[in-house]
Amino acid sequence: xxxxxxxxxxxxxxxxxxxxxxxxxxxxxxxxxxxxxxxxxxxxxxxxxxxxxxxxxxxxxxxxxxxxxxxxxxxxxxxxxxxxxxxxxxxxxxxxxxxxxxxxxxxxxxxxxxxxxxxxxxxxxxxxxxxxxxxxxxxxxxxxxxxxxxxxxxxxxxxxxxxxxxxxxxxxxxxxxxxxxxxxxxxxxxxxxxxxxxxxxxxxxxxxxxxxxxxxxxxxxxxxxxxxxxxxxxxxxxxxxxxxxxxxxxxxxxxxxxxxxxxxxxxxxxxxxxxxxxxxxxxxxxxxxxxxxxxxxxxxxxxxxxxxxxxxxxxxxxxxxxxxxxxxxxxxxxxxxxxxxxxxxxxxxxxxxxxxxxxxxxxxxxxxxxxxxxxxxxxxxxxxxxxxxxxxxxxxxxxxxx
Length: 402
What we know:
The chain has helices at about 1-10, 15-35, 55-75, 80-105, 105-115, 115-130, 140-145, 160-170, 180-195, 210-220, 245-270, 295-315, 330-335, 345-355, 365-380, 380-395, and strands at about 45, 50-55, 150-155, 175-180, 200-205, 225-230, 275-280, 320-325, 360-365. The strands form 2 sheets. It has a 7-stranded parallel sheet, with helices on both faces. The two termini are about 45 Å apart. The protein is α/β, with parallel strands linked by helices. Helix 8 (about 160-170) packs across helix 14. The protein has 2 domains: about 1-135, no CATH class; about 140-400, Rossmann fold. It is about 60% helix and about 10% strand.
């Protein structure tokens, strides 16, 4: 509990934390009581100094709940829109209190008396406006946060190549590893030309145990401050129809390789007192996925490993995040044997994952994906969930592999 409280309230002024606590009280306690328990005839809501009663007050309690809920999310995740939203909201509260008090008091004295209850909110508005840079997007600053070198596996294409570009754009030197030397060389040339940072390529087949050892030997002379466990592959089809050796290699690539690399490199991070680790997981790791059963299982492994390490390594100043994209416009679909379907831009996926480092243990890309996995896991039973996923995956899998 102490660590959770530290995570919630760190790097935030006390008055901002107090405002967040007030919003949490309103969103989770007062407004639900106001909506579902308080009698309609006693209900009152104030908007912009105007008092509403009865059924109108009851209806207007719902947007009030949304306002406070959005504020909690904005404070917790330091969303940029809060820089304008919070001072605007506290300013309208100050105006509403002043207007209401002035009208209730009446006369010239009302003009003066109305100021007293409004002054604290005016001061809060001023404080939020002067501290709106708190909500500015965090710069990556990977070199300052983690060190000079980052290692990106599966860097030859797709999300891995986008992750490498984003990291290099910050000025961090990048080690690129994958099986295809021509792709790695082309990406290294591009990065050195566009971002003027040093690169190193390591050609290795990470689907075999020797691949991880080969990579570790190739980077033994460097201090790796940021490890990106991106290499992975899918293999679509009914379990008994798939090749067993390919499934074994998939298990090594998706699970054993990130485990071995992370265990080896985290030792140095702890000694230096800083570091970052990103696991590229998948929405498939949150749901049972028939016709992609082994891939789903491996990504569940990555998710739980990464989220557990997030909690374990925080005290050592090591940031860990699991990036969980849905369908993405990469070579994954073709390599996995899926029927082509639309997906997100890999550059956007990579940027979202890197920005989540140090903010949360895992991040689902795309609001639609987030709503889908959370609603499905909370509202449906496991059998229904698996059967629905089976139907959906059947549309993306060739008929001869059902």
